[in-house]
Specification:
The chain is 26% helix and 23% strand. It is an alpha/beta fold. Strand 5 and strand 6 form a beta hairpin. The structure holds 1-O-phosphono-alpha-D-ribofuranose (R1P) and uracil (URA).
Length: 349
């Protein structure tokens, strides 16, 4: 850690950078694709507009944020690595840097429990959490506890889910016949191994876990590790105004501004000016990399074509999804301020 941090409650640098993602207001857009791997993030970034030059920040903790425009619409790609804690850092720290609505589509890989072939795309309408019960005695067995816990389901945002499905159909390359399944249920787990029913040298008491999950959760189709926590935080957020944005508005000079300074732009952007509260909407597209029924695993060539198609589909879905102007992050001081369409818009005001 090199920077001086203020406020142990929500740690930030003096110029308003959040502690783990390293970004500050103006460096992340209202529309966000989140992925787990750097190469997927970089592949999608190649489809973004040439102008403005992409903003890219690799944080000390391994989060990568890339912000620019797609078809002139400001959009960010955030690579978060793996697992629930990273998903939590992502949603909370981006939320702290954003004013207005936050649209999140996760594009990740998954294992599939049904007989869908590898390369299929699954859009979960809802997700449950399946977690290892740490009160269970894994070393000796335990008659009193169950080894795995299952949560209630949380739904994707229905409008974003539908927009994503439509965009994937529209962007499908003619040569690809991969299936899209959009009425599925996902389970997010806290381990790639034990709580996904894989057999390893550990005594995970999970030999019948997959059968149990399939019996307990109708339409359960995929296993991965982040979607549930993204959906859960999205629906749990109450749209509370973020006073810290008024203290540290984005500054292209890199210096924080005085609290009294007015944020200029297309609108004031501060949440107290917004008649209805901002929201977080979340949806997910999951690429089947592993078939848990046939034991097949996707090839690098298939990953390449699937990520190109689904990356394009997610960009299209997000860029076309309507956000009312008063629920967009302020233009002034943002890294997308320098694009030609936005410069022209500013000039016309
Ligand atoms: C495990 O290999 C990882 O792959 C899946 C899981 O959710 C987990 O993060 O997603 P990504 O391909 O986005 O990383
Ligand atoms: N990601 C997962 O979490 N599980 C799989 O089986 C494949 C990808």
């Amino acid at each position: 850690m090199k920077d001086r941090i203020q406020d142990a409650n929500f740690p930030k640098t003096e110029d308003g950078r959040v502690y783990h993602l390293g970004i500050r207001a103006g460096e992340v857009a209202n529309r966000i694709i989140t992925v787990g791997s750097i190469s997927r993030a970089e592949g999608i970034a190649k489809m973004m507009d040439a102008s403005p030059k992409l903003f890219s920040l690799y944080s000390e903790r391994g989060f990568l944020t890339i912000t620019g425009c797609y078809k002139s619409v400001p959009l960010s790609i955030v690579c978060i690595g793996m697992g629930a804690p990273n998903a939590d850092f992502f949603i909370r720290e981006v939320r702290e840097c954003l004013s207005g609505d936050m649209l999140v589509i996760r594009l990740g890989s998954c294992g599939c429990l049904t007989d869908l072939p590898v390369g299929s795309l699954v859009l979960p309408a809802s997700s449950v959490a399946c977690t290892r019960n740490v009160d269970f005695d894994f070393a000796s067995g335990d008659p009193w506890e169950v080894p795995y816990r299952l949560s209630k389901p949380i739904s994707a945002d229905p409008d974003l889910h539908e927009a994503l499905r439509d965009a994937l159909e529209v962007t499908r390359p003619p040569s690809l016949k991969n299936l899209i399944v959009s009425n599925a249920v996902n389970a997010s787990t806290d381990s790639f191994y034990s709580s996904q029913g894989r057999q390893t040298s550990f005594q995970d008491h999970n030999a019948s876990l997959i059968d149990h999950l399939k019996a307990a959760v109708p339409s359960l189709t995929t296993l991965e590790m982040e979607t549930f926590w993204i959906f859960h935080l999205a629906v749990s957020w109450g749209g509370v105004k973020q006073s810290s944005l008024a203290v540290n508005p984005p500054s292209s000079s890199g210096k924080s501004r005085e609290a009294s300074e007015k944020v200029e732009g297309l609108h004031s952007g501060l949440d107290e000016d917004i008649p209805s509260r901002p929201v977080i909407r979340a949806a997910a597209a999951q690429m089947v990399f592993a078939s848990r029924s046939s034991q097949a695993f996707i090839s690098p060539e298939q990953v390449n074509e699937l990520e190109k198609w689904s990356g394009r589909g997610v960009l299209e879905a997000l860029s076309k999804f309507d956000i009312s102007p008063e629920k967009l992050h302020p233009l002034s001081g943002s890294v997308w301020e320098r694009t030609e369409p936005f410069k022209a818009l500013r000039a016309s005001l």
